[in-house]
Design brief:
The chain has five helices and twelve strands. With 196 residues, the chain is α/β, with parallel strands linked by helices. A seven-stranded mixed beta sheet has the order 2-1-3-4-12-11-10. It has a three-stranded mixed beta sheet with strand order 5-6-9. Bound molecules: glutamine.
Length: 196
């Protein structure tokens, strides 16, 4: 049985817990860095990236999450979580966790257009995915080893780099669980690879 943690400092935690449970994996709210030892994959939820970063520092999570990723364990960032994973943020000198080789823009669809829904063609799924965007970022540039999984208005809004996955939208806010299931499969694969 795989255990997937959701960083539970701020943001859309409960929705991710429910979505993870629906995949059949065990879901754990992560509030202390020691709990990272008990999980096979980690979700960084949506919320507010600056606030979440402050809490990551306050609760001494920064290096612990980077180490978790360097061990080859999958991390999935949604919305604010995507911003936390980028190694460059437009208009800011410093990035946050820097797990993925990509530059992101915050609130990139305009502050006025606070939230909207859009149907996306996702390369790894056969059918369209209805995505909920809330003050969403997008990926401005990415390295060749970052695979763009979906675009909206020609902007990259979902991507995968090895065992790292990110979406600019909130896959946990709809009944369509395909992104969480996709992540759960990445967790299963990495667990097998790490065990062999
Ligand atoms: N829904 C979200 O996670 C919004 C992210 C937010 N705009 C940020 O910069 O952190």
């Amino acid at each position: 049985m795989n255990t997937i943690g959701v960083l539970a400092l701020q943001g859309a935690v409960r929705e991710h817990i429910r979505a993870v449970e629906e995949t059949g994996a065990v879901a754990l709210e992560i509030k202390r860095k020691e709990q990272l030892e008990a999980i096979d994959g980690l979700i960084l939820p949506g919320g507010e990236s600056t606030t979440m970063r402050r809490l990551i520092d306050n609760y001494d999570f920064f290096e612990a999450i980077q180490t978790f990723g360097k061990q080859g364990k999958p991390v999935f960032g949604t919305c604010a979580g995507l911003i936390l994973m980028a190694n460059e943020i437009e208009g800011q000198n410093d990035a946050h966790l820097g797990l993925m080789d990509m530059k992101v823009a915050r609130n990139a669809f305009g502050r006025q257009v606070a939230s909207f829904e859009a149907s996306l063609d996702v390369t790894c799924f056969g059918e369209v995915f209805n995505a909920v965007f809330i003050r969403a970022p997008y990926i401005l540039e990415s390295a060749p080893n970052v695979e763009v999984l979906a675009t909206y208005q020609n902007k990259a809004v979902a991507a995968k780099q090895g065992h790292y996955l990110c979406t600019a939208f909130h896959p946990e806010l709809t009944d369509d669980n395909r992104f969480i299931e996709y992540f759960a499969q990445m967790v299963e694969q990495s667990k097998q690879t790490l065990a062999s």
